[in-house]
């Protein structure tokens, strides 16, 4: 079984500051990990994903995440926040190649506020 | 443009009045799924479909029905809506149900049941 915990339902940063959104997962099989972003009144968009291979994954809009198996973490970072980054962010896990349902398990979400 | 289209975007109804939320994708995706989003709970899967005529329950299927008669369409049916089904609903699709293909989401349907 899989589960995801996002630490902090709200994160506030100043424009230009480092963005760090935390995600820890639990999985009984090698997981696939995803970060999605949701802007107001829109559906979720894929930011990046980890399946296999390189543990540092780069995504759109300057975001990246590192898969750390020993820490069961997949934290999302961006060196310099922009006002347009204000949104809700979801971490998700699937059962990877073991999946026969295609299901993603989502975390509770983290709302990122960017202050001018 | 590749997209998942849900209708309606907003819906207010009364307890017990049957309703259908439509979902259509134009990407020839095999896999489709419905999620509901509630504050503090993230997204929870209601039903999914691996292909035409193949559907199965997700984590919160009670009170919902689905059908997959055509590859592109995956409607969500609430036979007798109740207030606890007030939520934001998302339809999503992906190339395959292998857990690797990213999900493409519609813009959501905000349902209020009074």
Layout of helices and strands:
The complex is a heterodimer of chains A (116) and B (114).
Chain A: E1 2-7, E2 10-14, E3 19-27, E4 32-38, E5 44-50, E6 56-58, E7 64-68, E8 73-78, E9 87-94, E10 105-106, E11 110-115
Chain B: E1 4-7, E2 10-13, E3 19-25, E4 31-38, E5 42-51, E6 54-57, E7 65-66, E8 76-78, E9 87-94, E10 104-105, E11 109-113
Parallel strand pairs in B: 2-11
Antiparallel strand pairs in B: 1-3, 3-8, 4-5, 4-9, 5-6, 7-8, 9-10, 9-11
What does this structure look like?
The complex is a heterodimer of chains A (116) and B (114). With 116 residues, chain A is mainly beta. Chain A is 0% helix and 55% strand. Chain A has strands at residues 2-7, 10-14, 19-27, 32-38, 44-50, 56-58, 64-68, 73-78, 87-94, 105-106, 110-115. In chain A, the strands form 2 sheets. In chain A, strands 2, 4, 5, 9, 10 and 11 form a 6-stranded mixed sheet that branches. In chain A, β6 and β7 (64-68) form a beta hairpin. The model of chain A has no long low-confidence stretch (mean pLDDT 91). Chain B has 114 residues and is mainly β. Chain B is built from no helices and 11 strands. Chain B starts with a strand and ends with a strand. The model of chain B has no long low-confidence stretch (mean pLDDT 94). The A-B interface holds A 4, 9, 32, 34, 36, 41-46, 49, 51, 90, 94-104, 106-109 and B 4, 31, 33, 35, 40-45, 48, 50, 56, 58, 90, 92, 94, 96-103, 105-108.
Q: Could you give a quick summary of the protein structure above?
A:
The complex is a heterodimer of chains A (116) and B (114). Chain A has 116 residues and is an all-beta fold.
Shape of chain A: globular
Shape of chain B: globular
Helix percent band of chain A? under 10%
Q: How would you characterize the largest beta sheet of chain A?
A: 6 strands, mixed
Structural class determined from secondary elements of chain B: mainly beta
User: How many strand units of chain A?
Assistant: 11
Distance between the termini of chain A: 41 Å
Order of helices and strands of chain B: EEEEEEEEEEE
What average pLDDT do the residues of chain B reach? 94
Sheet bearing the most strands of chain B, described? 7 strands, mixed
């Amino acid at each position: 079984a899989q589960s995801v915990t996002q630490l902090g339902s709200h994160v506030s940063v100043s424009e230009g500051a480092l963005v760090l959104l935390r995600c820890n997962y639990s999985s009984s099989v090698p997981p696939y990990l995803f970060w999605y972003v949701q802007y107001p009144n829109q559906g979720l968009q894929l930011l990046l994903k980890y399946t296999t291979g390189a543990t540092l994954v780069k995504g759109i809009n300057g975001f990246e995440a590192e898969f750390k198996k020993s820490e069961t973490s997949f934290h999302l970072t961006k060196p310099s926040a922009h006002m347009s980054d204000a949104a809700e962010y979801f971490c998700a896990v699937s059962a990877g190649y073991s999946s026969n349902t295609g299901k993603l398990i989502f975390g509770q979400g983290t709302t990122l506020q960017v202050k001018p | 443009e590749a997209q998942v289209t849900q209708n309606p975007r907003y819906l207010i109804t009364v307890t017990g009045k049957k309703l259908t939320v439509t979902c259509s994708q134009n990407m020839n995706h095999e896999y489709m799924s419905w999620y509901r989003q509630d504050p503090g709970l993230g997204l929870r899967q209601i039903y999914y479909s691996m292909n035409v005529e193949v559907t199965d329950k997700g984590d919160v299927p009670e009170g919902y029905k689905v059908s997959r008669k055509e590859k592109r369409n995956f409607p969500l049916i609430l036979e007798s809506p109740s207030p606890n089904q007030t939520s934001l609903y998302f339809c999503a699709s992906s190339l395959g149900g292998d857990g690797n293909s990213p999900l493409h989401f519609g813009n959501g349907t905000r349902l209020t049941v009074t």
